[in-house]
Amino acid sequence: MNLITTIVLIAATLSIILALVSFWLPLMTPDHEKLSPYECGFDPLGSARLPFSLRFFLVAILFLLFDLEIALLLPLPWGDQLPSPQITLFWAFAVLLLLTLGLIYEWLQGGLEWAE
């Protein structure tokens, strides 16, 4: 067998063994506290199905956008090695400008305010 086949066989065997062990090993002894919606033992006071505020999702999406911006700009230092680094700097500036304009727009529209 070649090396890749051996590695795949070892990984598959180990995965199957770990899945079987995790299925049969834990002790299942449910009691009243573990069967309650909250494991702390307190009875729930209200509905657990209350909707989240739309502002929460807006802030979460803004966080993801600015977090992904780092991933987009990560190859920027290696762009200096290209024959024309001006193009790389132009596109990096365009991404930053677009995100900055979007943030300013949201700020001016009041989308970042928690209380109205």
From TrEMBL:
PANTHER family in alphabetical order: NADH-UBIQUINONE OXIDOREDUCTASE CHAIN 3
Enzyme class: translocase
Entry keyword annotation includes Amino-acid biosynthesis: no
Documented EC number(s): 7.1.1.2
A GO term from the CC aspect: mitochondrial membrane
Topology term for the membrane: Multi-pass membrane protein
Species this chain originates from: Kali macrodon
Record bears the keyword Nucleotide-binding: no
InterPro entries per UniProt: NADH_UbQ/plastoQ_OxRdtase_su3 (IPR000440), NDAH_ubi_oxred_su3_sf (IPR038430)
Subcellular location(s) per record: Mitochondrion membrane
Chemical reaction(s) catalysed: a ubiquinone + NADH + 5 H(+)(in) = a ubiquinol + NAD(+) + 4 H(+)(out)
Keywords recorded for this protein, A-Z: Electron transport, Membrane, Mitochondrion, NAD, Respiratory chain, Translocase, Transmembrane, Transmembrane helix, Transport, Ubiquinone
Gene name, Swiss-Prot/TrEMBL: ND3
Family assignment from sequence similarity: Belongs to the complex I subunit 3 family.
Role of this protein: Core subunit of the mitochondrial membrane respiratory chain NADH dehydrogenase (Complex I) which catalyzes electron transfer from NADH through the respiratory chain, using ubiquinone as an electron acceptor. Essential for the catalytic activity of complex I.
Name of the protein in its database record: NADH-ubiquinone oxidoreductase chain 3
Domain of life from the UniProt record: Eukaryota
Gene Ontology terms, MF aspect: NADH dehydrogenase (ubiquinone) activity
Transmembrane feature ranges: 7-27, 52-76, 88-108
